[in-house]
Amino acid sequence: MSYDPYIVGLTGGIGSGKSTIAQRFRELGIEVVDADQASRKVVEPGMPALNIIADRFGAKMIKSDGTLNRAAMRQLIFSQPLEKTWLENLLHPLIAEWIVDQLQRAESAYVMLESPLLLETEQHQLVNTLLLVDLPESLQLSRTAERDGDPKQQIQSIIDSQMARDDKLRRANYVFDNSLALDTVTPRITVLHETFLHLALESLHDD
Hints:
Layout: E1 6-11, H1 18-27, E2 31-34, H2 35-41, H3 48-57, H4 70-79, H5 81-105, E3 110-114, E4 129-134, H6 137-148, H7 152-161, H8 165-171, E5 174-177, H9 185-206
Parallel strand pairs: 1-3, 1-4, 2-3, 4-5
Helix pairs in contact: 2-5, 4-5, 6-7
């Protein structure tokens, strides 16, 4: 699919730090469409998807304030693969619709689509190039456990449910090694930003 402006896909496994990297690009004036935000939007109170989820799984999936009980849902889908598939079939088309609408509204020189499941879903078809934020699995586990306080077994289940690290590395056009020293982050992002600006300009000329 062809969009204007140029679309950079940003992905990475849980705990990789992709949201922090996305924020650095925002600070450079780049609009970032967050697929996680899309997943929240489509199950907000009053949205049809939330009612469908409640009908299937019961009132325990809805918190007292009317919002989705994400902790209960996460536990369910990682213990019951068939229910995970059912939920994906419900939500992924709605999420895709929201994402496409936001991408088409973007006005920066290029736009970034931040998504943890970019390669696991058809979202990768929306992007012109792909930036992977990469970490060794051991660091993913330790950083996520420290950040969220979740059991490492649960975090490992999430990692195992996503595309293997080696497969992501093979498919990425650019890799940001987030295990390197903190003082290298800004200069490396600056280089990537200049690269994406150049690619965006080239795509305009190609059109």
